[in-house]
Amino acid sequence: MKELIRPNILALEPYSTARDEYKGELGIMLDANENPYENGINRYPQTSLRRSVISKLAASKGVAVEKLFLGNGSDEAIDLCYRVFCRPGVDNAVMIAPSYGMYSVCASVNDVECRKVQLNEDFSLPVDALLAASDANSKLLFICSPNNPTGNAYPVEEIEGLIQKFPGIVVVDEAYIDFSSRPSLVPLTEKYDRLIVLQTLSKAHGMAGLRMGLAIADAEIIRYFDMVRYPYNVGSDTLAVADGLLPDDVTAQIEELRSERAKLAEDLNGLKCVRKVYPSDANFILAVFDNPREAYNVMIAEKIIVRDRSTVKGCEGSLRITVGTPDENVRLMEVLKRYDA
Ligand SMILES: *Cc1c(COP(=O)(O)O)cnc(C)c1O
Known about the structure:
By secondary structure, the protein is an alpha/beta fold. It has helices at 7-10, 18-21, 47-61, 74-85, 102-109, 127-132, 156-165, 219-228, 236-245, 251-269, 292-301, 326-340, and strands spanning 68-71, 92-97, 113-118, 138-144, 169-173, 195-200, 213-216, 274-277, 284-289, 307-308, 318-322.
């Protein structure tokens, strides 16, 4: 593990905050240069509140608290992967394509070469090509499962095979795992110390506005993430809201969204203007339209906004449609059926 971490990070003396050094909550707090007049947010976030959220999340994921990193969205964890493991201008990251855009944006920001490997035509994992694209300086391999925007999840055995053969850290982004029929890879973090699993509260858990995401990995990786992150990366309001909402019960909503997804897939399949509907393990459907731009504009005119992926290599002609409430999905289909007639 140590040889995968950037030398400057290995040598890092982390910043120690006032709240790290004195963890109490009561008393006359003259240690952090805050405004002393209470308004609910005049104090820096309490370490105890952060700990409380982490322990609730860790319990719900079935992992030890030392294995869980709490970030400002999982986007922060993606960026930290680069900052902790990749030497700018030297190391590289391997990733599937098409996939979530932040892997390559963060690579560019950190001056890390990004090696994109096109998925097979049926969106299955190009296992051999991913390994062929890696070398001794390949520090990260990003696999998004279920993948955005293709919607499919990958067999655990295939990802496990990659973990065994890839020389660096394998990052599995499970932003949509709650909608999937395939299991999470979180239990595999017990077996492999080079596996990082990313999850988020933004999608199934209904808290995208909070900006909270997590990384689950070997405790040593989490220790480096915590050394490198901004001292107060998650604000006190965010922590307080999350602490009150967790463990949140979104099981019924997820069930409904999964059944709406099946219905929507069937309805889209029945349209003449739709060439293909890809199977989905996520809360969105990727569908290929005869004239995606026209269909997109028809929906826009009715104030229905979907994601145009029609020019993305590998998903030519497609629109990505998030599964909405039953009413929203009915409205979407009304508009598309009228266009189709
Ligand atoms: C939406 C999304 C995220 C972003 O998560 P945040 O926690 O909101 O930053 C991460 N990965 C994938 C694949 C996503 O689609």
